Amino acid sequence: MDLKLDHHSEDRLTIVEVEGEIDVYTAPRLRELLIDLVNKGNFHLLVNMEKVDFLDSTGLGVLVGGLKRVRAHDGSLELVCTQERILKIFRITGLTKVFGIYASVDEAKEAHGRDK
Amino acid sequence: MATVELTFSALPAHVRTARLVATAIARRTGVEESVLDEVRLAVGEACSRAVEAHRLHCPGEPIRIELSDDLGRFEVTVTDSAPSDELEHDRGMLRIDDPLGQLPDTLMSGFGIAVIAGLADEVQVYPSPKGMRIRMSWPAAPNGLPRI
């Protein structure tokens, strides 16, 4: 399955909806979107990965790159993910300590609201 | 022992094909369903690393992947022709405690090997000036799945 990307803003939070496979072939499109959003002043990103079928280290690199960029503007990049097969790669690489990972968009929005 | 060999040019689009082939053969070899995701990800990591390395050093050379079942194990070997060294191997085997500080946005080769090491039941990495060979294996049914 190819990669489908969409995004919308709610208050100060930009929610990025990702569907499909994030790998060495498709990850550049996600990278371009994240860079574009940051360049347009969106510094608080929430990436919804609930419909992601596959994620490899190239995809992780794109997310890490996005996190670096938003942090340069005191922003945040957090994730929504409950799929064990996706979470496993975050655990193996120790990135669960780096990203805020939530069980739902609502849970992330609630946490984001508390931090404002 | 049955072996399937696949060679592909160093294009990112072909990595998905390699993943699909590896998963199909792993299933046929009798690898447990719960482990197939790990096979898919580990083979994808090895092939992605090889593609990135070839694109840097030898874009015209093909990458080779061998898949075999041998005495109750499913074994995958990914061989590339790009020069590699011990440094990359060592970096891959390190626990990455500071991903934001250490990792570039694009080439995640060492990271990929660390992921493979976390996924495969057994893994051996053979770096050399002539290319890298990554061999990984998982338990499978002793005689594969019965033919239908």
TrEMBL record, chain A:
GO MF entries: anti-sigma factor antagonist activity
Every STAS domain range: 3-112
Keyword annotations from UniProtKB, A to Z: Phosphoprotein
Keyword flag Phosphoprotein: yes
UniProt-listed InterPro entries: Anti-sigma_ant (IPR003658), STAS_dom (IPR002645), STAS_dom_sf (IPR036513)
Alphabetical list of SUPFAM superfamilies matching this protein: SpoIIaa-like
Signal peptide: none
Any matching Pfam family: STAS
Record-stated family: Belongs to the anti-sigma-factor antagonist family.
Protein name from the UniProt record: Anti-sigma factor antagonist
Species the sequence originates in: Streptosporangium album
UniProt lineage: Bacteria, Bacillati, Actinomycetota, Actinomycetes, Streptosporangiales
TrEMBL record, chain B:
Domain Histidine kinase/HSP90-like ATPase, residue spans: 8-138
Keyword Phosphoprotein: no
Gene3D superfamilies, sorted: Histidine kinase-like ATPase, C-terminal domain
InterPro entries for the chain: Anti-sigma-factor_SerPK, HATPase_C_sf, HATPase_dom
KW Kinase (keyword) present: yes
Keywords noted in UniProt: Kinase, Serine/threonine-protein kinase, Transferase
Lineage top rank: taxon: Bacteria
Record-given protein name: Anti-sigma regulatory factor
